Amino acid sequence: MLSPYRVLDLTTERGLLCGQVLGDLGADVIKIEPPGGSPARNVGPFYKDEPDPNRSLFWWAYNRNKRSVTLDIEQQDAARAILRRLIEGAHFLIESHDPGYMASLGLSYDDVAAINPGIIYVSITPFGQTGPKAGWADSDLIVWAAGGPLALTGDSDRPPVRVSVPQAYAHASAEAAVAALIAHHERARSRRGQHIDVSAQASVDQATLSNALSAPLGVPDVRRSSGGSKYGPILVRGVYPASDGYVAISFFFGTALGPMTRRLMQHVYDEGFCDESIRDKDYIAYVELLLSGKEPESEYARVRDALEAWTRSKTKAELLDAALERGLLIAPIAQVSESFDSEQLAAREYWQPLDHPELSMTVPYPGAFAKFSETPLRYRLRPPLAGEHNRALYIDELGMTEEEVFDLQANGAI
Amino acid sequence: MANGLPLSDVKVLDLAWVMAGPVATRVLNDYGATVVRVESATRIDTARTLVPYISNAPGPENSIRFQNINAGKLGVTLDMSKDQARDVVRDLVRWADVVVESFSPKVMRSWSLEYESLRAIKPDIIMLSTCLMGQTGPMSRFAGFGSLAAAISGFYDLTGWPDRPPAGPFGAYTDTIAPRFTAIALLAALEYRRRTGRGQYIDQAQGESALHFLTPALLDYATNGRTQSRRGNEDEAMAPHGVYPAAGDDRWVAIAVRNDDDWRALCDVMGRGELSDDERYATTEARRARREELDAIVSSWTREHEESEIETALQSRGVPSSAVQNSSAIYADPQLAHRGQFVQVEHALHGATTIEGSHFHLSRTPARVERPAPLLGEHNQYVLEEVLGYAPERIAELVAAGALE
Prior knowledge:
- The structure holds two protein chains of two kinds.
- By secondary structure, chain A is of the alpha/beta class.
- Chain A has helices spanning 16-24, 57-62, 77-88, 101-104, 109-115, 140-147, 168-190, 200-204, 254-270, 276-279, 286-292, 297-312, 316-326, 336-340, 343-347, 390-397, 402-410, and strands at residues 6-10, 28-33, 66-70, 92-95, 120-125, 194-199, 223-225, 228-231, 234-237, 239-242, 245-249, 330-332, 352-356, 361-365, 371-372.
- Chain A contains 17 helices and 15 strands.
- In chain A, the strands form four sheets. Chain A has a six-stranded parallel β-sheet with strand order 3-2-1-4-5-6, with helices on both faces. A three-stranded antiparallel β-sheet of chain A has the order 7-8-9.
- Chain A is elongated and about 85 Å long.
- Chain B is α/β, with parallel strands linked by helices.
- In chain B, 38% of the residues lie in helices and 15% in strands.
- In chain B, the strands form three sheets. Chain B has a six-stranded parallel β-sheet, sandwiched between helices. Chain B has a three-stranded antiparallel β-sheet with strand order 7-8-9, covered by helices on one side. Chain B has a two-stranded antiparallel sheet with strand order 10-11.
- Chain B is elongated and about 85 Å long.
């Protein structure tokens, strides 16, 4: 879908997913790495736990469908001349350096637009390009704290917890791809590029599911609770034990979801795990009953206990079967291994193998983010070695000579 | 609509429910697309029933989440069980560039609204179906919310304390990931259609999109056979790294020490300069090995201070730190205010109310966020008359048949 377009990917360890998504859609993505290789190559885990720039699974995760050249963007003269030529031929530039760094190199949006006015220049930063926190130091955890999702997650008697696989820059990077494609749509009419400012803090706000709006709209803050959350006096508990692990249950009330909760409790009753008084509660009006105090919390606790007694008596697979058979809102809590080995994903041929000839192995990658009938996504390139495509770009495309490339190497420019 | 916005030429028919689809079409709407959202007054959108409610008052026009994710759209009510209503949908398909839906495959076929039927009406239509597990496979009929997709994909097991049951990420977590890929898919398909004139069908499984946010852990299992699981706030490359108690009740501050410089600065700020010379903590590896001891030291300091003091003191020395911000703190955050995160709009029932602005900024063609979410059926007249050009008699017939409910 994006095969006519070229992307220059200048991102650090933040922002890599953005270029990969554009690459999956067919764009020619050139990852520009510093001569020593991208710092993202030092991020673990590593294949066979051997720290090596070509064995970083973090690097593998987010650099498929990209070509790599090495180039020192801090150098002027020869290196800068190459970069100028790459900018002239590019449609998108993505970067994730601290605000001000690109400008200090003479590579701000205005500098780049002077070379190529049509370019869409995407900046992904922790807090945005300007503002009182624009210069703040960050990490995944810090962004997750500042943006809102962290406060909502965790056991009530312990500190809030993050997702153990960093999420903040995945959100920011995917959002950056959305923004880039919106600007691209407009460019088809106007022929003009623009600067996109993505703030990871603002981006992860989406993971609060609009609960960031509680304060301005007169609602008490949502409180974290083990396997769920508390909305004022109402506990929403989503995690229940099975005999061999845990399941997630959507146990909600109201006109849309109350009937499903009723169906669930009917089944719990049929299986002998609750009495009629629990089965026959008004699950449609249950929120109102709890808010008004007509239904005491102790009764609601009795409902949850009955549900737990039932889930405890079954395996995750049995509970999933019951969910599929009866349309109940229950899902097994899968470990990464179970997720990887899922029959559903196998049936849909989700995993996409890519050969890593340098390691004599084939690696199954998470497959297309969606199935397109006309333009199925193709995984053309395994994550590149640093500078793997220097020759293809510098000699074959830009027409440099072997000697010129050798000199640049000697100067540490590439 | 020639509104000068990037997507001013894009027309979206939004048949999707609850969150995942509507969150994606909200972004398109912010940037100028005309989005007609079809609901039913007889089978109300689940999102309208979700807590929290504006001022804690239950009601179909009061769900904060619904209000936020549907802002700016045109709202039409149709009773899809009626033939006449489905004819209106077919006319909307003729009008639209893009159709997004989240019904079950069986239902769409029974209504003759599956892709083949839509393509017969409009050959270059782009249609996207979004559901938890995809349109095919043994689990295709598994319906539910993003919390269930998050559980079955691995996010729950990866969130919480190793000695406790999983805490899980907040709520319907994959509903916050999938919409990003929905918007990407639609924009890419529009680009392809612009160049080739061809539409297409897109089958999006929420779980499959979301797994791209777990790729490092999935590759760790696929290549090393290691099953990562939840580990609190521990980090494999940083220590101290965690969430520490601040002064007051349930107040917290996050601190991430990336390297030795950060460590020395933290010791200084804590007034514990002697620790930076202590060999037991000299390297990241050493600090990681003694992280529990260090967490106790850091906590004993953070407990004495407000989180705002701590983040300011550490950030002034370049150490990553932030208060753990709840809604009140986010609403007061000067950085988010600077970016216009919160926008006031005028709502027919609520008066001046607050929704979120665009999370990202385009320099030349910024988003326009000016209208609230539609009331149930608010734009029936406008859409039937202005968008579809129906005569008053036809509209009266639809009303009489109960098709607009």
